[in-house]
Amino acid sequence: MIEKSPLAVYVHIPFCVKKCLYCDFASGPAGPEEIAYYMRILLKEIRSFEALASLHFVQSVFFGGGTPSLIAPLYIRQVMDLLRSQYEFAEDAEITLEANPGTLTEGKLAAYKDIGINRLSIGLQSIHEFELKTLGRIHSYQDFLENYETARKIGFGNINVDLMSGLPRQNMEKWSATLRTVADLEPEHISAYSLIIEEGTPFYETYSKPQGRIYLPGEELDREMYRYTKSFLAERGYTRYEFSNYAKKGFESRHNMTYWTGGEYVGFGQAAASYVDGRRFSNPSDTEGYRTHARNAYNAFKAVPPLSVKEQMEEYMFLGLRTSRGISREDFKKRFGESMPRAYERTLLSYFRQGYVAQEKGRIFLTDDGIDVSNRLLSEFLLD
Ligand code: SF4
Are 46 and 266 in contact (CB under 8 A)? Predict the structure, then answer.
């Protein structure tokens, strides 16, 4: 009998009430007919991947977006029913739904609980009304608080809150107030990302030009905020286990850890990415492209050539070094049947001498100084 391996399932719901001003995700507003049409196609795509079920069991499902809490819970139920009818699920499978304040109600939260959602990820970003308005968010802090309290009352015992630093006109005082207020609520998990000004967004138009850039915290303040976040949240019992993710003991996101540790995942829906059976693949990010692709998604997936060993080694290094657990020579050897290439050893030695990496109990990880320049450091692991 074949032993099944764990699989993380991502389901993309690309709908939002309105587009936030900084957002470049595959998401946007849609009417009920468009939503119904998309969900029909999505179910078809999931059905077509049925063959994966003979090799894998599901250890996590993540409804991301977009705003999955915008659509009727019935759609979420249909997806879960279909997945459960196809796959074996781990008894303690982590099932997350991303939700935005302003789209949640008590009725929806109760329905999610009934469907088996056991983790909520709520997009708050800031407690300050001015910052929420600047970002183009649809909700207030009060909306968030009411949703959060209702979720607790209904019995959600695993909640992530998304926060964002580096916002226009933000200073340490404002950022620390956001962190403190949210930590006081004691969610099990906090994601704290730094704002990135993405090309093609209204924020890019405003803040990429010199006259706009003056409103953004400079690089130094950004790093200061990052370090403060780590030390403040550590005091409150949260461990940083990835560059931007903090969790109380035992509440690290299993789904996200699959991405960072080279585990297998399949993504359904517009712009969703997969890494399964050695193949890496992304669905088209435009609506029309996805609709056409979904008709033949499984065959298109099978036609993708598997990653080479060199590509898998590169991934192991630059994904593993994002986590505070880091990487180890022993893991590397177990995985690839050979020692780390000399080029990697040379790079690690040079980073070690510069204080960018440290080693403890056989594991190698980036130091705070290394995280500050991680983009540059990690790109060195691409083998020629
Ligand atoms: S709610 Fe999230 S996905 Fe939707 S527009 Fe805003 S940032 Fe983008």
Answer: no
Band (212; pLDDT cuts 50, 70, 90): confident
Mutate-to-test residue for ligand 1 from 13, 25, 193, highest number of ligand atoms within 8 A of CB:
25
Fold of 5-260: TIM Barrel (3.20.20)
CB 49 within 8 A of CB 274: no
Compute the distance from residue 23 Cα to the ligand 1 centre, in Å.
6
The residue whose CA is least distant from atom 2 of ligand 1 is 66
Query: Where residue 1 falls among pLDDT bands split at 50, 70, 90?
Result: low
- Is CATH 3.30.70 the right assignment for the domain spanning 309-379? no
Q: Which of 17, 20, 100 to mutate to test the pocket of ligand 1 (most atoms within 8 A of CB)?
A: 20
Ligand 1 close to Cβ of residue 19 (< 6 A) = yes
pTM of the model: 0.94
74 Cβ partners below 8 Å, 6+ apart?
A: none
C-alpha 220/C-alpha 214 separation (Å) is 13
Residue 248's beta-bridge partner residues?
none
Name the residue among 238, 248, 290, 252 with its Cα closest to residue 269: 290
368-382 pLDDT, tens digit per residue, is 999 989 989 999 888
Q: Which residues pair with 288 in a beta bridge?
A: none
Provide the CA 272 distance to its chain's centre, in angstroms.
12
Q: What is the pLDDT of residues 272-331, one digit of tens each?
A: 999 999 999 999 999 999 999 998 999 999 999 999 999 999 999 989 999 999 999 999
Q: How many CB atoms lie within 10 A of CB 27?
A: 21
Q: How many residues does the chain have?
A: 384
Provide the residue ranges of all domains of the chain, joining segments of one domain with +: 5-260, 309-379
Cβ neighbourhood burial of 54 (10 Å; 0-12, 13-18, 19+): exposed
Contact 145, 161 (CB under 8 A): no
Residue 384 pLDDT > 80: no
The band of 93, judged by pLDDT with boundaries at 50, 70 and 90, is: very high
**Mean per-residue pLDDT, 208-213:** 87
- The DSSP string of 175-214 is HHHHHHHHHHH--SEEEEEEP---TTSHHHHHHSSHHHHT
